[in-house]
Specification:
Pyrimidine Nucleoside Phosphorylase, Chain A, domain 2, Aldehyde Oxidoreductase, domain 3, 2 domains, 4-stranded mixed β-sheet, 4-stranded antiparallel β-sheet, 11 strands, 22% strand, globular, transferase, Nuc_phospho_transferase, Thymidine/pyrmidine_PPase, thymidine phosphorylase activity
Length: 264
């Protein structure tokens, strides 16, 4: 764990920021699988930053279920722009607002409630989205796809994975979902592999949601339909449907600063 902490913080410190907010994920899709490990990693990183004169805080966020609905390159960009336009999924929007308000607080922009209001306001008035478009444009990006996600290139093929029975999704392994997206071409298995920017997954049902037998749980996208079988096997291997609605974990577990750990 000290090697992970030092590797991450060396890059943060080298960037020259005087305030650093860390998003330390915890769960099946993260390096840290439980809260104690995540808190310990956060404490190490906060202590390194503090020792070098930086203001540092870390939020422990959940990764036992994916944030939002979209997995894949252009799919995630489209969903991120929806958040900035006030149209994004509630869970992804909430984590973004928590991160933004905590960063504003570290920057000395006011008390936490005021910082939260500032973050909400720039989404409501559209200025957050416009600044993002300007940042893309300054780097030579095509901002037309940010304003209209339908302009993104679409994958040639789509394939639904359907619920095998009535019930609730009680397990949806995030690591297996991520691996399924890689098998579709959204990520690399080997460094030489090319990435299909249109490939990925849109989740229609997530942890805790009720499902009916035959109802689509998610849709897979790829330019090669022979990839669907392996991706579906990977996805379904981490999926469990049960009779009882499970308890859905919180989005934010804790906030770690040099003053201690605040658990939510």
């Amino acid at each position: 764990m000290p090697l992970i902490a030092s590797s991450i913080m060396s890059k943060k410190l080298a960037a020259g920021s005087d305030a650093i907010l860390l998003d330390v994920t915890m769960g099946s899709g993260a390096f840290m699988k439980n809260l104690d490990e995540a808190v310990e990693l956060a404490r190490l990183m906060v202590s390194i930053g503090t020792a070098h004169g930086r203001k540092v805080a870390a939020l422990i966020t959940d990764m036992d279920t994916p944030l939002g609905h979209n997995i894949g390159n252009s799919l995630e960009v489209a969903e991120s722009m929806a958040v900035l336009q006030g149209k994004g999924p509630a869970d992804l929007t909430e984590v973004c607002l928590q991160l933004a308000s905590n960063m504003l607080y570290l920057a000395g922009k006011g008390e936490m409630a005021a910082c939260r209001a500032m973050a909400e306001q720039v989404i409501a008035d559209g200025s957050a989205f416009e600044i993002c478009c300007k940042m893309f444009a300054a780097q030579g990006g095509d901002t037309s796809v940010l304003r209209d996600a339908s302009l993104f290139r679409k994958a040639k093929y789509a394939h639904d994975i359907c619920a095998p029975a009535d019930g609730y999704i009680v397990q949806n392994d995030v690591e297996r979902i991520g691996n399924a997206s890689v098998l579709l071409g959204a990520g690399r298995i080997k460094k030489e592999d090319s990435i299909d920017f249109a490939a990925g997954i849109i989740m229609h049902k997530k942890l805790g949601d009720a499902v009916k037998a035959g109802e689509p749980i998610c849709t897979l996208y790829a330019d090669d339909d022979t990839l669907f079988a392996a991706a579906e096997e990977m996805y379904v291997g981490g999926l469990t449907i049960g009779a009882e609605k499970p308890e859905v974990p919180p989005l934010i577990y804790a906030r770690v600063t040099s003053e201690g750990v605040e658990r939510f």
